[in-house]
């Protein structure tokens, strides 16, 4: 390859990296708010009478203009009571279904004008539970009489994949780990340690055994990415540290922290009371599958590039600076939000 063509490739990659930083820095707050799902839960307390909880994401002081609708005759028994809980608006009231809910269509009005999803969960007095995910392209669905456990598993599995796919900070941490490890064995050890750790805290936090405020957790996740990015630079300079010698230890420690971030998303979704273990397992498997697909994409991209050119060591340092810049911005943004 000629020096001119090689320089052109480097400039192209550099321009792409700058665009990535600008996109992540400029769009991350909006994406974070838009991607949080809405949540509608109905619990049958008496025959035909349901308590309703409707949680919608907020953008600043305003909530998304969403509202549930039923195709059949439904009347409110109590007024709607609203209260804000940080980044969401929670509304509660009671309804009576003049026509049985099974067979009706439930929709989220206004969902098609957003970029978010909505999870609908109905618990009937006989112990049956129905869970379904609504999307902007499919904002309504018919309520069946019963739901197969496989439907619950599929719903939470999809949410797990979608959460990791939209979790730019989690993916950036995994990418940083991939830059600091060398060899298949160490990659497997490091990613396994990260997976085991966040699975532990995801489970414990979701079932309520351990709780941490979301704001400090999100700030620490950003700082964890920044730390690994600085360690990549140290490694390329020939220095050594705990992270460089035993990356799996650091991956496990920060994996515990990232697990609380995953749990926050799952708590927002809610868990079906009769299928908590199944929903939890399915969500976790979805997260892991999404993570493995991301790792496979990185390895495939690196392998393809190496077949064309020899990747210079400076490219690794440049990647670390890109990751560190984005992580530093997130750290400042999230720490500032904690003290507002």
From TrEMBL:
It comes from the Bacteria. InterPro entries: Put_HupE_UreJ (IPR032809). Pfam families: HupE_UreJ_2 (PF13795). The chain crosses the membrane at residues 217-234, 246-267, 279-302, 314-332. Residues 1-32 form the signal peptide. Keywords: Membrane, Signal, Transmembrane, Transmembrane helix. This is HupE / UreJ protein. It comes from Mesorhizobium prunaredense. The lineage of its organism: Bacteria, Pseudomonadati, Pseudomonadota, Alphaproteobacteria, Hyphomicrobiales.
């Amino acid at each position: 390859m000629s020096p001119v063509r090689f320089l052109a490739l480097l400039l192209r990659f550099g321009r792409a990296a700058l665009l990535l930083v600008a996109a992540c820095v400029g769009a991350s707050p909006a994406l974070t708010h838009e991607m949080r799902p809405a949540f509608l839960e109905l619990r049958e307390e008496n025959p035909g009478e349901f308590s309703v909880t409707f949680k919608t994401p907020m953008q600043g002081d305003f909530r998304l203009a969403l509202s549930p609708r039923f195709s059949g005759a439904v009347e409110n028994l109590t007024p709607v009571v609203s209260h804000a809980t940080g980044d969401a608006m929670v509304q509660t009231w009671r309804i009576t279904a003049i026509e049985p809910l099974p067979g009706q269509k439930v929709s989220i009005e206004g969902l098609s004008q957003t970029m978010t999803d909505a999870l609908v969960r109905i618990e009937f007095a006989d112990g049956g539970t129905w869970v379904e995910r609504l999307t902007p392209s499919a904002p309504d669905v018919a309520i069946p009489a019963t739901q197969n456990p496989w439907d619950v598993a599929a719903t939470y599995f999809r949410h797990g994949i979608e959460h990791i796919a939209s979790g730019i900070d989690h993916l950036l941490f995994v990418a940083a780990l991939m830059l600091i490890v060398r060899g298949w064995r160490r990659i497997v050890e490091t990613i396994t340690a990260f997976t085991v750790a966040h699975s532990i805290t995801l489970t414990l936090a979701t079932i309520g055994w351990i709780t941490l405020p979301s704001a400090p957790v999100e700030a620490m996740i950003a700082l964890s990415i920044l730390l690994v990015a600085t360690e990549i630079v140290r490694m390329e300079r020939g220095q050594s540290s705990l992270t460089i010698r035993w990356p799996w230890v650091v991956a496990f420690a920060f994996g515990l922290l990232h697990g609380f971030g995953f749990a926050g998303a799952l708590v927002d979704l809610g868990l079906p009371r009769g299928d908590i273990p199944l929903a939890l397992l399915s969500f976790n498997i979805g997260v892991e599958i999404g993570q493995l697909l991301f790792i496979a994409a990185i390895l495939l991209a690196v392998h393809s590039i190496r077949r064309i050119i020899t990747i210079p060591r400076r490219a690794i340092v440049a990647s670390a600076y890109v990751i560190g810049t984005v992580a530093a911005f997130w750290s400042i943004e999230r720490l500032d939000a904690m003290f507002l």
